[in-house]
Amino acid sequence: MKKSTLALAVSVGVMATQAGAAGFLEDSKATISSRTMYFESDVREGVRAADQRETAEGLLFNFISGYTPGTVGFGLDVQGMAGIHLGGGIDHHSRTTSNTFFPTDTDGSSVDSWSRLGANAKAKLSKTEVKVGNALQPNLPILVSNDGRLLPQTFQGATLQSKEIDNFTFNVGKITQGASRASSNYAGLATAGGTKGSNNFTFAGVDYKVTKDLTLQAYHAELEDYYKQNFFGLVHILPIAEDQSFKTDLRYFDSDSDGKNGDATHRFNNNGGYAKHAGEVDNKTWSAMFTYTIGGHALMLGHQDVSDDGGMVWVSNGNVADGRGRGDGEGGSSFYLFTDSMINQFARAGETTNFGQYSYDFARLGIPGLKAAIAYLKGTNIKATSGASVGDSSEWERDMRIDYVFQDGPLKGFGATLRRANYRSDYDNHGTAAQNTRIADQDQTRLIFNYTYAFK
Length: 456
What we know:
Elements: H1 3-19, H2 22-26, E1 29-43, E2 51-64, E3 72-87, E4 113-125, E5 128-136, E6 139-140, E7 143-144, E8 154-162, E9 168-179, E10 201-211, E11 214-223, E12 227-241, E13 244-257, E14 282-294, E15 297-306, E16 352-361, E17 370-383, E18 389-405, E19 415-425, E20 442-455
Antiparallel strand pairs: 1-2, 1-20, 2-3, 3-4, 4-5, 5-8, 6-7, 8-9, 9-10, 10-11, 11-12, 12-13, 13-14, 14-15, 15-16, 16-17, 17-18, 18-19, 19-20
């Protein structure tokens, strides 16, 4: 933890002691979570590691305090995490940012363990809350913390959330750095392909609950010297009967270049697809998802369209070396689209994607805690880096998962998840060797065991 964050944590702790521990301690919560994961990626072609198989244990401690008494309440959230490598030798370890599972040691194998400590100081006035620290995990349309491996991605900065006006939730913030899902270090933010980190990601937005069933969203975000982005969203749930509903979820992103974007150090690789202006951000992406739920069944169908001038863009710090290289566990990012799947993103220029998912909750058959889902995505009309339309090329992914959480007995709360994905593509970006970043055909398996203990 950085000195500035430590000093902030100590000062808040002193204020809490002086103000009395009534709310600070009595309303606090402390948990420790364990995640054991077996990760396998069988890459069928290309230059990436052909056979990645690793097992590791992740431990995550969270202390979330209440607020001290008074007009302005103060609090402190502390987070500590550690990863322990359990299995998988040097021949089965990947250094690529896309499949980063564990940091790399000097000999090319995984390190034995890694850890990270963070904290957020917080203050609350009425229905407005401010957080400052390096353990932020936003889940917003313009910034999503990735939790796709052993431990979560966290960010450093400050956020403000206000619910002073009924039915409105305002979110404002500035993020300066991020720590990837398998790294002890914080680094600047960039886009995929950028090598110089920006320490200035700012955003502001609002969620407006028009009725209990309809929510509208509008956000603006800027990653200095990379891009500016506007987002508009609509979520509506139509109750049909006691056990039926129909959900509509619409999302639109409009992104443009900012500052040094396009320079050698501030390039965007456009996800390996076409760019109207090489290395620059220029994109409009819209998507729609419709979900019909009846009993334990849920059927989702959707469509996504990425504009012709460039790929969809989002925040990443997996490519930012900042003098350390990529072996320290950097890599992995999430974004707010339905096509952010296990292996691929379906986010290149011109790409049109149709997707669907079926899920079932077995509680309806008397097996509470058991759920299963299968999804399929297919993208076509991807533009090659040369600008040529490759209309007959395509890529597809099939994702399957089954989850079970024990509901009672000595294993109550213990959960197991099995995920399997298959990705295939015949897309050729017709670029140079340096431009050819096509994702290789691959199969991926994740077996995960989760348990959270809450201190009382």
